[in-house]
Amino acid sequence: MPPRSFNDWGLESSISDAIVDLGWSEPTEIQSEAIPVARGGKDVVGQARTGSGKTGAFGIPILERCEPSGSTQALILCPTRELAVQVAEEMTLLQGKKGLVIETVYGGTDIEKQAKLLGGGVDIIVGTPGRVIDMTKRGHINLSGIEIFCLDEADRMLDMGFFPDVFWIVEKMSKRKQTLLFSATFPQEVLDASDEFTDDPVHVMSEDLEVEVPEIDQFAIKIGRINKMWGLGRIISNMEESDQMLIFTNTKRMVDMLDERLERQGVDSASLHGDMAQNKRERILDGFREGKKKILVATDVAARGLDVDGITHVVNYDLPDETESYVHRIGRTGRMGRSGQAWSFVGSSEMGLLDKISNTWGMEIPIVDPPQLTPGSREMARYKEDWDELSDSFGMVTVRLSLREGEASKYSIASWIVKEARVPEVAIGEISLGEEESTVEVHVKKASYVIDVLKSRDFKGKKLEPAIVS
Is the dihedral of CA 87, 92, 93, 95 positive or negative? Predict the structure, then answer.
């Protein structure tokens, strides 16, 4: 039976007093499962989300096992500097008067200042992989003497491409005695890593893994990459003066590109991603919270922990790969009882992913046309025929023709198109003859030209009236 209070564990007095000062009375589910095992020195693989109390779950056992000696005994790796700062702050509070020196090590800040802090003697380091490696190579961190290693939010590490760095760091910790690995989800790569990093670990899980799905209006627009800006302009034109929009993309590069394109269109937007200096990001967030900026473009990682009540619109410019990320994204709007809208741009190859999202969370996400442009507004981009989006997995586009069965044969249609448009026979695919109309498949690379030819010439004295079947 899990303990009803932290007192049941007989924790060190400094930590026990700090827990009382923090107002913690009962351990959370993941703390009840993980703390006794970790205190016993065993490796732990835990499944828990942010906000479930997992910092305490690994932080309390680490704090207990470390002594204020000035030599680094534990390393905690986090995917972002925000999380590293948050973990370090919470552990500093949890240790109470024990006297451990806990320092953060992350990119985007002066490396010499961080080196100076480490030079004074550090007991626990909380950092991001890239900067930990950099400081190790410069001789400011000695990984070989560290006995406790914790990998926090392993799935995010994987998403951000940090796993090669994590492996490099782990290999250098030759005296490692205990490993604690926490993740909200366990993709195969994380499972493989847990086997490699840990020694006969105890698997623990918080059963409180439910994600609250916000009650807001959700829509999806079937649209290809080249027309996303056109669709975004339509949504922006329908915003009220007091509305605020959060746009998600999957990469930092796309954040910068989209922000730049919006600025060129005269939209007062701002961008947020992991490569920005911390003080700059805080300025941007403060400005958005105060309503100085109407639109913020961000990655999932940068927007983690973003709490702005005024957001009325969320746009998934890129659909996220993880179904849970979708729920966290759209949950940024509709706060404090306000109404909210979530729009997702979905390419033809992503329809299965949209179905997976809606089925996983029991949501209805109707596919709709982009909203009409409001009177007096102008288009942000010209709509273009997106052949790649219209083609199937074999690269074929289906064209409708005003030919009925009996007016032509499949062979005569194919031969005529090859001759008139001067295209190779392999560019013409399946031909279907119907009672009212017929269809012909044309390879995407030749589709535009073939359609122009079909529009300008008659087939046996008959207009073909070609039209794309979307």
Answer: positive
Residue pLDDT, tens place only, 36-81: 999 999 999 998 876 678 899 999 999 999 999 999 999 999 988 8
Closest listed residue to residue 227, CA positions, set 397, 341, 345, 314: 345
Cβ atoms of 345 and 317 closer than 8 Å: yes
Q: Which helix (H) or strand (E) holds 261?
A: helix 252-264
Are 246 and 333 in contact by the 8 Å Cβ rule? The answer is: yes
Say how far apart CA 331 and CA 354 lie, in whole Å: 17
For residue 342, give the H/E element and its range: strand 341-346
Domains of the chain are 6-205 (3.40.50.300), 217-361 (3.40.50.300), 387-468 (3.30.70.330)
Q: Look up residue 291 and give its amino acid.
A: G
> Do 153 and 122 contact (CB within 8 A), yes or no?
no
CB 265 within 8 A of CB 380: yes
The distance from CA 444 to its chain's CA centroid, rounded to whole angstroms, is: 31
pLDDT at 275 over 80: no
Q: Is it the case that residue 204 has pLDDT exceeding 80?
A: yes
pLDDT band at 1 (very low <50, low <70, confident <90, very high): very low
Cβ pair 11, 64 in contact under 8 A = yes
CA 385, 391, 395, 400 dihedral sign is: negative
Report the alpha-carbon distance of residue 376 to residue 80 in Å, rounded.
43
Which pLDDT tens digit goes with each residue over 144-163?
999 999 999 888 888 778 88
Q: Which of 264, 344, 327, 252 is nearest to 297 (CA)?
A: 252
The number of helix segments (H) and strand segments (E) in the chain equals: 18, 17
Burial of 179 (0-12, 13-18, 19+ CB in 10 A): buried
